[in-house]
Design brief:
The chain has 201 residues and is α+β, with helices and mostly antiparallel strands. The chain is 14% helix and 14% strand. The strands form 4 sheets. A 3-stranded antiparallel β-sheet has the order 3-4-5. The longest helix is centred in the last third of the chain and has 17 residues. Pfam families: zf-C3HC4_3 (PF13920).
Length: 201
C-alpha cells in the first residue's frame, strides 16, 4: 500500500487502514493507494514512483520510456525506485538529465509546454483587439480553442511515453511511437497480441 503524500510503502493492504502516520517517516497519511500492475504492459507490478505527482503506475522497464505520468500526464521530474519507497537504499533518477536506463535525455520540454505569448486584455474593460478592428469582450472562445488544440495534440501523442508522436500502428488499429512500439508484445490499449507493426510516414 502506497502512502501519500510521503510516497512510502510500509505495510500490507490489510493493515494500512489502521495506520494514521507513515511507519517510516512519521508523516500524517492523507491517502492510501493499492499498488496494482503496470498500466502499460500489465505483465509486472508497478514499481516506480513518479515525482512530483506521486503516482506509482508503471514497472521499471516501462517507466524508462516515459517523460510524463500516464495517469495524470504531469511532467516527471524524477523517478523513485520501489526499494527507496520501502525505506531501503537505491537511486533516484532525475528525468531532466538521465532516464532510468542511463540514456541521456537532450530535450525534455515538449512542444505542448511552449509558453503562450502574453494576451493583451486591453485593460479598462476592453477585450482583445481582433483582425477586423473590433474587440472580443470574452476570453471563453480563446480558452475553448486552446483546449481543443490541447486535445488534438494529446490524441496524436504516443499513449505510452506521452512525449513522441504516434508513428506506428498495430493490426488492432491502435498506435504508439516507434520507440515504444518496438518494445511492446501486446497492445497497451486493447491488450491484443502484436503480430505486425506498421510504420506511418
Amino acid at each position: 500500500m502506497l502512502f501519500s503524500p510521503c510516497g512510502h510503502i510500509a505495510c500490507c493492504n490489510a493493515c494500512a487502514p489502521r495506520v494514521k502516520k507513515c511507519l517510516i517517516c512519521r508523516e500524517n497519511i492523507l491517502s492510501r493507494t493499492k499498488i496494482e500492475e503496470c498500466v502499460v504492459c500489465s505483465d509486472r507490478k508497478a514499481s516506480v514512483l513518479f515525482r512530483p505527482c506521486g503516482h506509482m503506475c508503471a514497472c521499471e522497464s516501462c517507466a524508462a520510456l516515459m517523460k510524463k505520468c500516464v495517469q495524470c500526464r504531469m511532467q516527471i521530474q524524477h523517478m523513485v525506485s520501489m526499494s527507496i519507497c520501502c525505506g531501503g537504499g537505491g537511486d533516484v533518477t532525475y528525468v531532466k538529465g538521465i532516464n532510468i536506463t542511463g540514456a541521456l535525455i537532450t530535450d525534455v520540454k515538449n512542444e505542448q509546454e511552449e509558453e503562450l505569448p502574453p494576451q493583451n486584455t486591453g485593460g479598462g474593460g476592453e477585450g482583445i483587439l481582433m483582425n477586423n478592428g473590433s474587440r472580443d469582450m470574452s476570453l471563453s472562445d480563446i480558452q475553448k480553442l486552446q483546449q481543443q488544440l490541447q486535445d488534438i495534440k494529446e490524441q496524436t501523442m504516443c499513449p505510452v511515453c506521452l512525449d513522441r508522436l504516434k508513428n506506428m500502428i498495430f493490426l488492432c488499429g491502435h498506435g504508439t511511437c516507434q520507440m515504444c512500439g518496438d518494445q511492446m508484445s501486446e497492445c497497451p490499449i486493447c491488450r491484443k497480441s502484436v503480430d505486425k507493426r506498421i510504420l506511418l510516414y
